[in-house]
Structure formats: C-alpha cells, structure tokens
Amino acid sequence: MEQTSARIIDANANRAREAIRVMEDIARFGLDHRALCAGLKQLRHDLAEALDALPGARSMVLHRDTPGDVGTALTTPREGAREDVRSVAVAAGKRLTEALRSIEEAAKTVTGGGGIAFEALRYRAYALEQVLLAALMGRAVAVAGVCVLVTESLCEHHPWEHVARAAVAAGATMLQLREKDLPDRELLARARKLVEIGREGRARVVVNDRPDIAACARADGVHLGQDDLPVTEARKIVGAEMMVGVSTACIEDAERALRDGADYCGVGPMFPTTTKHKPVIRGPEYLRAYLAHDPALPPGIAIGGINAENVQILSEAGARAVAVSSAVCSARDPGAVCA
Fold first, then answer.
1. CATH number where 34 lies
2. Cα–Cα distance between 80 and 129 in angstroms, integer?
3. CA angle at 112 for the pair 109 and 113, rounded to the nearest 5°
4. Which of 135, 157, 176 represents a domain boundary (last residue)?
C-alpha cells in the first residue's frame, strides 16, 4: 500500500471510529435508544472488519505521522463550541460520512473493488445519522398551565370561538383543535381562526392528528395519537420548528416518543372521561412514573377526565400542565374554569 493511500485510510479510519463512538454514546446515554446503539455498534465492528480486509492493513499504522501532519493545527472557531448535544451529533454524523467517503476513494487505489465495502458502510451511516438526528429533534419545549382541547360539539353554552377566547383571556397557555369529522377545508379555516385567537393572548395552538392542516394553518404544533402518523413522518410535513406532541398511555409509549423526537407528551388518561372512551385508566400513578423516569421523558401534559374537583390530585403528583376538554367547553363560564 502506497504511503499516501495508507495515511488517508488510517487518518479517516480514526475519524470514523471516533465519530461512531460519539453518536453511539449519545444514543445510549442521551436517548436510551437500544436499537440505534446496536446499529452503531455493528457499524463500528463492520468498519473494523472492512479495514482489516485491506491489503497491508497491519502496516497501515506505520505510515501515521501525527507530529508532521500539517492538518492538525488547522481549526475553525466553530470546532471549539457546540450549542447542544444535537449539534454534537450533527458534527459527528458529518465527520463519519465524510471519513467513510475518503476511505472509499483511497481504498480504490489499493485493490480492485476495494471501495465497495466502504460505500455500503457509508450508506448505512446515512441511515443511522437520520435516525439519531430525528430522535434529537425534540426540543423539550416548556409546557405549563392549562391546555384546552376545543371541540365545537362540547360547547353547550357558547360558540367555540367564545370558549377559546375566554380560555386564553383567563390564562390558558395552549389550545388544541380537536375536530374529527370536519371536511378538510372547514377544518383548515377553523385551525386558522384558532391560531388567530391564540396569537391574541400568546397561547400556543396545536392541531389534533393532522400535520398537514397544522402546517397550512401555521399553527405552533400538531398532536398525534398512537394510531396517527409516526413523529418522524410528521416531521417531514411540519419541519423542525413546529412542535410535535404524542399521546401516551404507558411508559413504553413515552419511551418511543422520546426516541422519535417528540417535543412533549400527553400523559393519561388520568381519570374516566366521557369525551373519549379509554378501556384502561392509567391514573396519577402513571404520571408519577412518567415524571420519575430516567432518562427524563419529554415534558408531559396530564390528560383525561380532569376537572376542578380532581386537578389538585395531579398537582400533588407533580403535574405542571394539564389538558382539559368538556370541563371548559361545556362550562357556563369557561374562563373561570381555566383561572
């Protein structure tokens, strides 16, 4: 193996191994993502095997010349600082795929077809990088206070717009549009109106189930159920800046939401509810388990059958945010319920 190819392969093999280790540690310690950890670990081992299969692999390290490497002293200001763990992962992912491409090209000079194995590794790295960055896309947004789920059929005493405005004026921090049966055009018009109402009082607005409607209405987010689109697919529609929330009914749901990069989770049901039938009522014990989980799960909003009589139980369990529906929508004084 000629010296130039040997030095290129050796240097980039080190870069690739280091980058995989960084990504693996983030998946392991930051996300508790078993499948991603396994994938990255396997990639690391397969890279070692591919390198060992190159002619002259054992003597490659002899061509290393770190003190004489003109590149070791070249740095940029961005290399010395990272905004957050996700930026660390982004840098590691780019370093990995670039290193594999460099190895791939140099390996072509060593043996016929020598770059094929490294090309395959590079494509696998692209896929693993995507999974890692998607999982880190959740921003752990601050959620606190009252989220009101607005459904017209539940508004017994006032038009839905009145209920939404009264809730916002009383301090509700989030409005969620939950309308299952409206035609798309009417649903979009309603979503845009609710966004307008939310902006008046600086309340976030999310759309239930429909990332396309949320994106068109320029809402603050979309809320997904367990049977809706996965978080990663919804992200393709709403992008990185819009919140994506997920309903969870058990710790396994919540752990999946964390791995998928959800920004927050609905946690429940806390109590029996007439709004939506639930065969199992998880109750405040689920909320306690959610809040105590290690690693920390996305910020949670307690939901399900919550009213003025039982909300104190959730507060004592540690809830910082609750979602209410009929308790507000059907009230004669919606604002008083939210206050």
1. 1.20.1260
2. 22
3. 100
4. 135
What's the one-letter identity of residue 89?
A: A
- For residue range 28-41, list pLDDT tens digits in order: 988 888 899 999 99
Which residues, including other chains, have CB under 8 Å from residue 93's CB and lie 6 or more apart?
Answer: 19, 23, 125, 129, 132, 133
- Give the active site residue among 44, 108, 256, 276: 276
For the question of residue 34 being annotated catalytic, the response is no
If asked whether residues 331 and 197 sit together in one domain, one would say yes
Is the pLDDT at 172 greater than 70, yes or no? yes
Dihedral pair phi/psi, residue 325, rounded to 5°: -130, -90
> Which of 60-74, 134-148, 205-219 has the weakest average pLDDT?
60-74
For 272, the token pair is 């029996």
Is 247 labeled as catalytic in the residue annotation? Answer: yes
Catalytic residue status for 59: no
> What domain range includes position 287?
145-338
92 and 171 share one domain: no
Q: What is the pTM of this model?
A: 0.74
